[in-house]
Write a structure and sequence with these properties.
- The complex is a heterodimer.
- By secondary structure, chain A is α+β, with helices and mostly antiparallel strands.
- Chain A has 17 helices and 10 strands.
- In chain B, α5 packs parallel to α10.
- The longest helix of chain B has 25 residues.
- The two termini of chain B are 41 Å apart.
- Classes of the chains: A alpha+beta, B alpha/beta.
- The interface between A and B is large, with 94 and 77 residues.
- β4 of chain A pairs antiparallel with β3 of chain B.
């Protein structure tokens, strides 16, 4: 790490001068494998599940083929821990350092992100230990089956929702309250729900967070780097995954039109939905080549409202179809509703999904969608 | 000591994957369209969490390759052939809870299929060779051409910066480097006709006339996958070309080769001709021809097919002829002729592919040929012109 001490100090000083503030950051050099591991599981020390294994494998393959590499990783803790990849070049790690200062500033100052659990690392470790205990007690297969079902419904969390009636429309909260689970199963559900809420907060600020970190990276390094290095960075900035490039483009636009101070305000008070809704313009949609694609007639639409709606729906429901618990559900029968929308459910998925929910509810589960009612009970799937 | 949680999770994931594949390999391998977009589509649900999804024909949010900013039409339009990157629920590039694909990467599918097949057919499994020192070559690929599409490491920064500069001047009237790769990127690329860096050329020729489905496809694909297992260990770099034929022959991409439709008559001569055409300019490689057919050559083609077969023997180092015969019927006609030739000629392997055991027998002959070559038998490639032979 000695090689980076001076540049870390220099970038930190620059960042503070630009009005950024953050908790202490500890940088650590590590290998690609560890970064891929944490990236695929979401948190270090999290419980082990085959589902992360697929993501981990994919990342390792991509890194080995040099198709894609995660250059950095920073943990949302107090103090923050940032990992620099040993295989990175010096310049790449300089970019990472500047990017990290953007993230830690966001962790501390963003109104929404500040609500996230800074102790989640320890929580995840505690959950992992507890799940291992349950595996010893109730058998590995049984626990894995439960985890499969819980992770299937985990994305129905809404960490932002405080109204109890609205929360109860979200499947995982309803199951937590009403499903006939054994105490250890309910406890496992609560652990998964808690972790999912943590990720929900992160996802709901993903574009603005990555956009801000990228924007800060560019702002801080524009003056430090020589022309070829700046050009290399510039290439990188335009070739990053969608949340980075979309968020970066939006912050650049804010700075161009309203100045750096306005950008600072936005990083403090906005989350993705407001950020997209307010800043994304027709011109930026074109510039980013962002569109709604209809595979039926192979048509692209750059219509601003359509693109915004789609982006916002992805934020609200994590790209999955929106389903709600019907308040008319009874202890004997859980009724789920997929509100009418242009997009239809993949019928192959419905039975599998309902089977997973049935595994938790243990009584008939119905799903109403597009004029059909699917029922899953002890005889399997039926449709009316 | 660090607990490698990622590797443990991967092990669990792969155990499920293997289990599934073992149960369903035969059925998966028979899919008419084996590869779609580089992936083997499977009905696997165990490797994905069974979350709800939208149907495949539902509109999706996507990004293109940077062309959107150039168009003038306000309402969008038909999608061209430019790359469309669908942005999933987490908008891609997210690190938290990424989806595990239902599809298998084709290479991964082949690797797992090989594992299952080698066990099933009881063929020897080799340890992964060390790659260092196996390939000796003075002829590195020459990236002497430029293209707008290329690999990231081959970016021509100078040209890219120049275009960024020109665009900045054009758009904003300011000379500043603010590269947008999709609009400014230029890459060094290899002249596609230069194949000097490959050590073996393998031409796979498939008869697509008649009943090209089910067991037929399964036998051909299983044989090819097992062949790849051994060839890859010998030739760390190789070039594979694919040909299909019925009345006429044409070259296909790998993905097309594994998704072909059957039709037309059987002109085996056309298959041989096309295979030999593909050797044009190939001088420093070990050259293999693998031809798979299930039937008889059309009337009038027999003599021509014989001539082309003999010519092919002179051009290829080894001709492997697979008579795909899942019904186990007798061998006649042109296949019989080749079977007879294989008894006399050391460079011909004839395989009567009736079942998995026949694959083992074929591989046995094939490996004998490889071993003979390794232990100083007849070298296949004229060594006079080669400065980069891969054999020890």
């Amino acid at each position: 790490m000695d090689a980076y001490r001076d540049i870390i100090e220099r970038i930190e000083t620059l960042a503070r001068r630009r009005g950024l503030s953050f908790d202490p950051v500890y940088f650590r050099l590590t290998d690609s494998d560890e970064i891929a591991e944490v990236a695929s599981m979401g948190l270090p020390n999290r419980f082990i599940h085959w589902y992360w294994g697929g993501a981990y494998k994919e990342l390792v393959v991509q890194q080995n083929k040099e198709l894609f590499s995660i250059l950095e990783l920073v943990l949302n803790t107090r103090p923050s821990y940032a990992f620099l990849r040993r295989a990175n070049t010096y310049l790449q790690n300089v970019l990472v350092i500047a990017h990290v200062f953007g993230h830690v500033d966001f962790f501390r100052n963003n109104h929404w992100f500040a609500k996230s659990n800074k102790n989640m690392l320890n929580e995840a470790e505690r959950h992992a230990r507890q799940i291992r205990k349950y595996e010893e007690q109730y058998g590995r297969d049984r626990v894995e089956g439960l985890l499969d079902a819980l992770l299937t419904v985990a994305n129905t969390v809404n960490a932002f929702e405080r109204n109890p009636a609205e929360r109860r429309k979200r499947l995982i909260y309803y199951l937590e309250e009403k499903a006939p689970l054994e105490p250890w199963e309910r406890h496992t559900l609560q652990m998964i729900r808690e972790e999912s809420e943590y990720f929900d907060l992160i996802q709901r600020t993903h574009i603005i967070n990555e956009g801000w970190a990228t924007f800060v990276e560019a702002e801080l390094l524009r003056d430090i780097l020589d022309t070829p290095a700046w050009a290399t960075l510039s290439v990188q900035l335009s070739n990053r995954p969608a949340p980075y490039t979309i968020g970066y483009a939006l912050f650049r636009r804010v700075k161009q039109e309203r100045g750096f101070e306005a950008a600072l305000q936005i990083r403090t008070y906005y989350e993705d939905i407001r950020f997209i809704d307010e800043i994304l313009t027709e011109d930026l949609v074109r510039r980013l080549d962002l569109f709604v694609y209809d595979p039926k007639d192979r048509q692209k639409s750059y219509d601003l409202q359509q693109v915004k709606d789609m982006l916002i729906a992805q934020k609200l429901y994590k790209g999955e179809p929106h389903i709600e618990v019907d308040p008319a559900s009874t202890p004997r029968e859980l009724v789920l509703v997929h509100p009418e929308e242009d997009r239809r459910l993949d019928p192959k998925r419905v039975g599998l999904f309902l089977r997973a929910v049935y595994g938790l509810w243990r009584n008939p589960v119905k799903l109403r969608t597009a004029g059909k009612v699917y029922t899953y009970d002890r005889r399997g799937l039926s449709t009316v | 000591m660090r607990i490698h949680r990622g590797r443990i999770a991967q092990y669990k994931h792969d155990q499920l994957l293997r289990e599934y594949l073992k149960q369903h390999l035969h059925e998966l391998i028979q899919q008419k369209e084996l590869i779609v977009d580089g992936k083997v589509k499977t009905p696997i649900t165990t490797l994905d969490l069974p979350r709800l999804k939208y149907g495949e024909d539902s509109p999706v949010l996507a990004r293109g390759g940077g062309q959107g900013g150039r168009g003038g039409a306000a309402g969008g339009g038909p999608a061209g052939d430019d790359e469309i990157q669908v942005l999933g629920g987490l908008l891609g590039g997210d690190h938290h809870g990424r989806e595990v694909r239902v599809e298998l990467d084709f290479d991964e599918f082949v690797r797992l299929a090989q594992e299952v097949l080698l066990e099933e057919i009881q063929l020897p499994v080799f340890h992964e060779p060390s790659r260092s020192g196996e390939v000796r070559t003075d002829a590195l690929p020459e990236l002497d051409d430029l293209d707008r599409i290329g690999l990231r490491p081959d970016l021509n920064l100078e040209e890219t910066m120049l275009h960024a500069l020109l665009r900045a001047i054009r758009e904003r009237g300011r000379a500043e480097y603010d590269v947008e790769l999709a609009q400014d990127g230029w890459y060094f690329v290899e002249d596609p006709s230069a194949y000097e860096n490959h050590r073996s050329v393998e031409v796979y020729v498939l008869d697509i006339s008649g009943s090209m489905r089910g067991e037929y496809l399964a036998l051909v694909r299983k044989t090819i996958f097992v062949l790849w297992y051994y060839l890859e260990r010998r030739y760390p770099t190789n070039l594979r070309r694919y040909v299909v034929f019925q009345d006429v022959a044409e070259e296909k991409t790998r993905d097309e080769f594994f998704c072909v439709e059957s039709s037309g008559g059987t002109h085996i001569s056309a298959g041989f001709e096309k295979a030999m055409e593909l050797l044009q300019g190939v001088t420093e490689h070990d050259r293999f021809l693998f031809l798979f057919t299930d039937g008889e050559t059309s009337s009038g083609d027999f003599d021509l097919a014989k001539r082309r077969f003999e010519e092919a023997l002179g051009r290829f180092d080894l001709v492997c002829y697979g008579h795909v015969n899942p019904g186990g019927r007798g061998v006649g006609g042109f296949s019989e002729y080749v079977q007879e030739a294989a008894r006399r000629l050391p460079r011909v392997v004839f395989a009567n592919l009736t079942d998995a055991d026949a694959i083992r027998a074929t591989l046995g002959q094939f490996l004998t040929c490889l071993r003979r070559d390794r232990t100083g038998g007849q070298p296949w490639t004229p060594t006079g012109t080669s400065s980069s032979a891969s054999r020890p």
